[in-house]
Every structure is written in structure tokens, then in C-alpha cells.
From TrEMBL:
This is SMC-Scp complex subunit ScpB. It comes from Pseudomonas laurentiana. InterPro entries: ScpB_csome_segregation, WH-like_DNA-bd_sf, WH_DNA-bd_sf. Residues 228-255 are annotated as: Disordered. Pfam families: SMC_ScpB. Keywords: Cell cycle, Cell division, Chromosome partition, Cytoplasm. Residues 244-255 have a biased composition (Acidic residues). GO terms for biological process: cell division; chromosome separation.
Length: 255
């Protein structure tokens, strides 16, 4: 094997990347060779180009991310390949994604500055999750009262999203254009003019009804209460009084 020939070096680099299972920097790849056999940097670059071209038409590709180079499954096959793992991919809340986006685009940024933009408090579990995933890190402290921590993204964040650098983040204007149009409720959809005309022609004219005001309802309730009071008074009038009742058994009329 002639390691100074990019065509011979490319399969060896492929073997390194397949075995590692994670991105490898050029510096790390250099260290895998003895000094006497180590190819020149220019040969490394050509070998990587050969490897990249050899992936054309295959299920995986050579991708350069922040931490280096890696071989990964093409995105087109992700929905099927994901079935290999029983665990479903974790879904992130809108609050977490908004927080992550603000850190990515406005870093370094403090928690208070994130809250000022979002208009709501940042749940401590959100920053804890991002720190545990090593997507963000504390890069310093703002010289203001309380000295709040300033957050920034990491190489792990760039690797996860297939980015080589922050310069590859899409412009905010493009993100706004990518937002889906709000779905129109079928009940709110405009009715075609000819159908509306047919519907109007088929409706019988409604008889005008006198509108009932809140005051008229109160008057009606008062009249109902008056009627109930009169009914109960009539019932009391028909009830024999205590004076009409016999005082004892002897006073009761005998047959």
C-alpha cells in the first residue's frame, strides 16, 4: 500500500472513520500514522476528496462537521434506519428550541437576555438539558450586578446539526420564510361567490323578531315572582287557622 497515493490512502481513512463511529479531526488522523509513514497534508486532502466521491450513489456520505470528518447515513434513509432503535427520538419542546436558537444566533447571551426576547421566564430544566447534552456551555459572566452566566454553543451542537461552523446557520430571514403557513379552518374558508348567491336565494326570509333586552328580562322575572307570591298567599288563605281547630277531643262534633 502506497500511503502517498490518495487512491490507496482513501480506503484506509474510510476504515478509520467507520471504526471510530464519531468525527475525527485531521490532527487526530495524522496521529494514527508513524512519523516515517505519515502522508503529507496535501495527500490527506486529496484522499478525503477521493473518499467523498466514492460515496456517491451509496447509502452513506463523508461529512465534515465542527469536530472533523465522519461517515454517516444519508438523510434520505433516516426514517427507515431509525427503526433499528426501539427508543423513539426525543421530541424537544418549543421553549427549548427557541432558547437554543437564541443562544445560537445571539451568543454569548445570558438567561435574562433570553427571557427579555421571549417575554417569559426560562425554565431551569431547559438550560440544564442543554448543558447535559453539551450543546451549550458557560463562556463567562456578564459584568453587571449578579454577574449572570453567558451561554454559547459547542462543537457538539454543530456536530449534531451537521454544521461545520456557525457561519452555516441559515439567516434568520430564511427561517421566517420556512415557517409553515397557518392552516385555514374549513369553517373560515371563503365561500365561492356563485355558491353564496345560490345559498342566499334558497333561504326563506326570516320573520323579524323583537329583540329582548336585559331590562325586559328583569321585568319578566319580577312579574313571575309576583305571580308566585300571589299563589302562595292564596294557599295560605285556604289553610284553616289555629282558631278554627278544635281545642280537644271533647269539642269535636259527634255523629
Amino acid at each position: 500500500m502506497n500511503l502517498n497515493d490518495p487512491r490507496d490512502l482513501a480506503p484506509l481513512l474510510e476504515a478509520f472513520l467507520l471504526a471510530s463511529g464519531k468525527p475525527q479531526s485531521l490532527e487526530r488522523l495524522f496521529e494514527l500514522f508513524e512519523e516515517a509513514e505519515r502522508p503529507e497534508p496535501a495527500v490527506f486532502k486529496k484522499a478525503l476528496d477521493v473518499l467523498r466521491k466514492s460515496c456517491n450513489g451509496r447509502a452513506f456520505e463523508l461529512k465534515e462537521v465542527a469536530s472533523g470528518y465522519r461517515l454517516q447515513i444519508r438523510e434520505d434513509y433516516a426514517p427507515w434506519v431509525g427503526r433499528l432503535w426501539e427508543e423513539r427520538p426525543q421530541r424537544y419542546s418549543r421553549a427549548l428550541l427557541e432558547t437554543m436558537a437564541l443562544i445560537a444566533y445571539r451568543q454569548p447571551i445570558t438567561r435574562g437576555e433570553i427571557e427579555d426576547v421571549r417575554g417569559v421566564a426560562v425554565n431551569s430544566n431547559i438550560t440544564k438539558t442543554l448543558l447535559e447534552r453539551e450543546w451549550i456551555r458557560v463562556v463567562g459572566y456578564r459584568e453587571v450586578p449578579g454577574r449572570p452566566a453567558m451561554f454559547a454553543t459547542t462543537k457538539a451542537f454543530l456536530d449534531h446539526f451537521n454544521l461545520k461552523s456557525l457561519d452555516q446557520l441559515p439567516p434568520l430571514a430564511e427561517l421566517r420564510e420556512m415557517e409553515p403557513e397557518p392552516l385555514l379552518d374549513p369553517d373560515d374558508a371563503p365561500v365561492p361567490a356563485h355558491l353564496q348567491a345560490l345559498a342566499d336565494a334558497s333561504v326563506e326570509p326570516e320573520v323579524e323578531r323583537e329583540e329582548t333586552s336585559f331590562h325586559s328580562l328583569l321585568v319578566e322575572l319580577d312579574s313571575m315572582e309576583e305571580g308566585l307570591k300571589t299563589d302562595f298567599d292564596d294557599m295560605l288563605d285556604d289553610t284553616p287557622s289555629a282558631a278554627d281547630e278544635p281545642e280537644s277531643v271533647e269539642d269535636m262534633p259527634r255523629d
